[in-house]
Amino acid sequence: MIVAEKKPMEEIIEEVKGYNKILIAGCNECVTVCEAGGKKEVQVLASALRMYFMNQGKEIKIDEVTLERQCDHEYLEEIRNIIDQYDAVLSLACGVGVQFMAEKYFTTPILPGVNTCFLGATEERGFWTERCQACGQCILARTGGICPVSRCAKRLLNGPCGGSTKGKCEIDSNVDCAWQLIIDRLKALGRLEQDYEKLTPIKDWSTDRAGGPRKVVREDVRI
Amino acid sequence: MSETKTPSKLEKILSSGQLAVTSECGPPRGSDPEVIRKKAQMIKDHVDAINITDNQTSVTRLCSLAACIHLKLMGLEPVLQMVVRDRNRIALQSDILGAASFDIHNILCLSGDHQKFGDNPQGQNVFDIDSMQLIQTVRLMRDEGKFLGGDDIARPPKMFVGAAANPFADPFEIRVPRLAKKVAAGAEFIQTQCIYNVDRFKEWLKGVVDRGLHEKVYILAGVTPFKSAGMAKYMKNRVPGMDVPDELVKRMSGVPKEKQPEEGLSICVETIEQLKEVEGVSGFHIMAIEWEEKVPEIVERSGLYPRPSVGE
To answer: Which among A157, A177, A197 is the nearest to B130, CB-wise?
Structure first.
């Protein structure tokens, strides 16, 4: 899923303080799972902002809504009837949702309430870690199911570097060395000897961010 | 390995079977070329080639290529260190050609420390290719006369291609396979991480020799003299991938502060002495960090002086 975290309150206040009628829009997908922008977070943020502005002696209308998804036309349409009642929308969706809403409601300011961080997984409640950088050409079959592009600080395709120490990365002793994980897994799969010394060729990054904005087109399912 | 493929003096000495000696100079954090010239002047008669580091520890410095050119203009033999952290494949190939245009004949292909350690921790890193792929790239450019894109190079670079090896990093079990991989990628010489744990280095080297890798690549054992007990502790505790045994820290701490530099030099000389006759060691890479003036003494005390002269 897409993992996001809440923006600091001060930054949000700075974003919204010029508006009098604000809609806070949560998203029921990834940001709900990572507890950054679901219904619960919308409620908490709305209460905090109401409290803040009340203490400032400023009367502001703050409403709440949580859409099933903000990256889908269908659900974004659900607020078409009410959007004109607001000066701005504070979206707690990921960067995709914020932008998709902005495209749809072209004359309404749509502000981000979270920082979109990475594609990751929930290790345990309150702890999410990165697993994928969406490079567009998956090499996991070759690396024991562990991605060096997203998990090695130098995205080495032929690692580890000389900074791997006791299974940890040179940048932080709390970060696993991706190549230690790859080697451990290859060993568990009985493939270390045959796979480790295969040189991974230079990667084609044109399917990554480097190639410009990407799209996937499926003619067979297009309407 | 006796036939040479490039005009490199370092390659000539290694292929003649003599122990080679290299050292390194870190470029200044400024644009004064005198800094690099002075360092080179101190060591030039005692080493066969001089590595120029490439923004080591990710601290911004005068670029390796320009510093190598200064050495070349002094008639010396530079080893261009090149990290893949800061440049994409276009810039790397371009800098290789730039170096080749000055007849710089040695290159050391490296990943580079993460930028987190340097003066611009908020910067992007590139890592378009990795150090093994840089080795492959230089070999492609040299041997096939081709760019990565497939086009022909007019006057291809003639570079003796080196790589680093850290016998002390984890996991230890892949340290020999990793060297084999670098050799397969095209590495012709290796400069190792600083050796303090001689036993562990020998254990690694045995694995290298058992696989016959020492017959395919020249291994220069890396040494760095401690200037002080504090430095020994720092290297032990703070530098990733460094293996400093406790007894060396104790030995350094056991002598009065003013005698510590002398003790550090002795340890360094002893390390070289212990490794000189070991099968698989083709030479030494002396990294006297901001202590270049001691390189001649280390070389002389280790019995590695005078340096051989080779015909052009």
So the answer is: A157
Indicate the number of domains in chain B: 1
The answer to whether position B161 is within a domain reads yes
With CB atoms and an 8 Å threshold, state whether B170 touches A164: yes
Which chain B residues are within 8 Å of A175, Cβ to Cβ? none
Can you tell me the mean pLDDT for B125-151?
98
Q: Does A177 touch chain B (CB under 8 A)?
A: yes
- Determine the 3-state secondary structure of A156 from DSSP: coil
Containing structural domain, residue A154: 133-203
pLDDT, tens digit, 9 for 90 and up, residues B252-311? 999 999 999 999 999 999 999 999 999 999 999 999 998 999 999 999 999 999 999 986
Q: Is the dihedral of CA A180, B209, B195, A154 positive or negative?
A: negative
When divided into structural domains, chain A yields a total of 2
In a domain, B155, yes or no: yes
CB contact under 8 A, B111 and A167: no
CB-based burial label for A193 (10 Å; 0-12, 13-18, 19+): exposed
Phi, psi of B223 (to 5 degrees): -135, 145
Mark whether A46 and A74 lie in a shared domain: yes
On whether both A69 and A24 belong to a single domain, the answer is yes
Contact state of B169 with A161 under an 8 Å Cβ cutoff: yes
Q: CB distance A163–B148 less than 8 Å?
A: no
Q: Which of residues A92, A118, A144 is at a domain's end?
A: A118
- Which residue among B128, B132, B166 sits closest to A199, beta carbon to beta carbon? B132
Closest residue in A to B110 (Cα) is A161
Could you read off the pLDDT of B196-223 as tens digits, one per residue?
999 999 999 999 999 999 999 999 999 9
> Which residues from chain B sit within 8 angstroms of residue A164, using beta carbons?
169-171, 240-241
Can you tell me whether residue A76 is helix, strand or coil?
Answer: helix
% chain A with pLDDT above 90: 98
The string of pLDDT tens digits covering residues A15-66 is 999 999 999 999 999 999 999 999 999 999 999 999 999 999 999 999 999 9
